[in-house]
Amino acid sequence: MPTVNDVCQHVRSKNAGPFWVTFDLFFDGDENFKKYATSPSLGPDLFNRLFGADTSTVKAFPVPSLNMVKISYGRSSPQGGEVERDMHCGQQFVRLLDVELDAVS
Amino acid sequence: MLEKPIKIIVPVGSLGAGVREEELAYGLSKGATAIATDAGSTDSGAAYLALGVSKNNRGSVKRDLTLLMKAAYGAQIPLIVGTSGQAGGDKNVNWTRDIALEVAGELGIKPRIALLYSEQDKAVLKAKNADGKITPLPPSGALDDSAIDACEHIVAAMGVEPYIAALEDGVDIILGGRTTDTAVISCFALWKGAPWGPSWHAAKVAECGAQCSDYPTNGSGVLLHIDNEGFEVEPLSTTNRCSPHSVSAHMLYETSNPYHLTEPGGVLDVTNAVYTQADERTVRVTGSVWNKKPYTMKLEGAGIGRYQTVMLIGIQDPKILSRVDEFHDNMLEVLNERVKKTMGLKDDEFHISLRMYGWNAVSGEKLPADTPPPREIGVLFVATAETQEIASQMAKACNPYFFHFPLNLDEELPSHGFAFSPADIDRGPVYEFLLNHVVVTENPMELLRTNFIDLKKEEAA
User: Fold this and answer.
1) Structural domains in chain A (count)
2) Sign of the C-alpha dihedral, residues A85, A89, A91, A92?
3) What are phi and psi of B299, to 5 degrees?
4) Residue in A15, A61, A85 closest to B43 by CB
5) ipTM
6) B173: phi > 0 → left, psi -120 to 50 → alpha, else beta; which?
7) B107 membership: H or E segment, kind and range
8) Which domain CATH number covers A67?
9) CA neighbours within 13 Å on the CB side: how many for B13?
10) Long-range contacts of B271-280 (CB under 8 A, 24+ apart)
11) Distance from CA of B364 to the nearest CA of A (A)
């Protein structure tokens, strides 16, 4: 199975306000976008497993015109708490890169 | 309806980041009739709101304001600044006001200035809360009055209405408190009668300046053209360009939803927006829709949490680096015990975290078993406690163990690479955003105040 890194040309993460984090996965083209953008491997469970996200907050928005999918979830602790290690969530995308993707059936 | 397109210079992503004089000249030569920029956001953390201080240094804000005030005054067009002083609290606005007054004196100009304040009174907010007029945004719950009390400062993010009122009043400069990034830029076009969908969408695209271009580091700002059917955006740097990809991709930036953007009084919907290359450097956008909603304003409140003291060491010893996790776990256990024994603190009265930079500091998660050892790590010790004094005492109690902790307890004590002496650094409190709520207002001005400064009149008086 390919990884996120194999099928995306660019992946990034960032706060969307202090209470949300958002991931942008830009696929390398139309074909892989159709195959993987809504893959169950990128579902709420993944974000729970990797980041402790509450699955009910995880939302995915495919944007076909850009061959990308945006996935957002409510931060488990707001930006800047006592145990903050990534103030802007700018490094969170790294943990997605090795995730293996099932194709959309 | 507009008789001709509205042209607005958005000179920079945030006031103080570096306005370029030649870009202002280009925008003015194209017939811009306003300059608009924000001066902050929540992105850098809650400290700036809690303390009422700027993130940028005074010199860089003064430099940008000097260039902008000179250009705007020379062209007799308004200069509009939102979220002054990073957080847009009253103190942040007044800090920016004082710089603007100093600049006006140095330039020998006498502008009329509107100051828009959106800092909130706690009693007013509690009354709103009791009245059921404050609702949570996900993922937060209902607002408890104790959260209001715990905030040092609370602001409501303004929409376009106070700006339009100030423009209607004929001021030369508007310095606004906390405002949505987009409202600062869309207000001028809306005041002139431009359509709402394109005006808000144009503002969203331009809010980070040249970030929406192909080469975000080539230049600082963009020029917007807003007309009756849509808008166009071009970089102010003539060697840069916008493409449908760069412009549409910016709608994704720092937003949780790529199609809908909630603003005071409505929602921008760009689901059916069409992006086309108008000329080599310019992108045209049509199909943006504004859906009017009941008027709400987002509240932001910042509070002060517990205090922290930090220490830093570097380790290159390969024996330790081949067993980083074990070293971390052993040291953390010993340090926790040390604090309990020497200071009598209970588990819930303090917290120690060790962050292994070069290994797993950012995630804090265990790495795969086959991860090769690093060549060097930095270990950041973070003590957290109720007061700065306690956090500082914790660091001092841990100092000998942190700096000389061995891999095996039966070996000679090593000395890890100290970065400084004294080794402990009191870094102050943790600042936190405590509100994630919106307030329903009777009208857009209900929770706001506007002050005017007329330098011409002050001179006459």
Assistant:
1) 1
2) positive
3) -95, 140
4) A15
5) 0.93
6) beta
7) helix B90-107
8) 3.30.70
9) 16
10) B273/B201, B273/B248, B275/A65, B275/B244, B275/B247, B275/B248, B276/B244, B277/B243, B277/B244, B278/B232, B280/B241
11) 8
Tens of pLDDT, residue by residue over B357-400, are 999 999 999 999 999 999 999 999 999 999 999 999 999 999 99
Residue B441: what are its φ and ψ, rounded to 5°? -115, 155
- Could you tell me if B214 and B241 are in contact, meaning their C-beta atoms sit under 8 angstroms apart? yes
**Nearest CB neighbour to A61, from listed B258, B306, B308:** B258
| Mean pLDDT of all residues belonging to chain A | 95
Using the beta-carbon criterion (under 8 Å), do B248 and A18 form an inter-chain contact? no
Residue at A36: amino acid letter:
Y
Q: Which of B275, B430, B436 lies nearest to residue A82, judging by beta carbons?
A: B430
Which residues 27-66 of A have a C-beta within 8 angstroms of B? 54, 57, 59, 61, 63, 65-66
Specify the fold of B306-430. Alpha-Beta Plaits (3.30.70)
A95 assigned to some structural domain = no
Q: What DSSP designation does B425 have? A: E
In chain B, residues under CATH classification 3.30.70.600 are 306-430
In a domain, A100, yes or no: no
**List of chain B residues whose C-beta atoms are within 8 Å of the C-beta of residue A88:** 43
Q: Of A73-82, B49-58, B106-115, B433-442, which range is least confident?
A: A73-82
Structure tokens at B420: 């400084």
Residue A47 lies in a domain: yes
Is the pTM above the cut of 0.90?
yes
pLDDT at B406: 96
User: Which residues, 6 or more positions from B370, have their beta carbon under 8 angstroms from its beta carbon?
Assistant: none
The answer to whether position A98 is within a domain reads no
- Between A and B, how many CB-CB pairs are < 8 A? 96
Question: Positive or negative, the Cα torsion across B115, B119, B124, B128?
Answer: positive
| Burial grade of B213 (CB within 10 A; 0-12, 13-18, 19 or more) | buried
> How many H-runs (helices) and E-runs (strands) does chain A carry?
3, 4
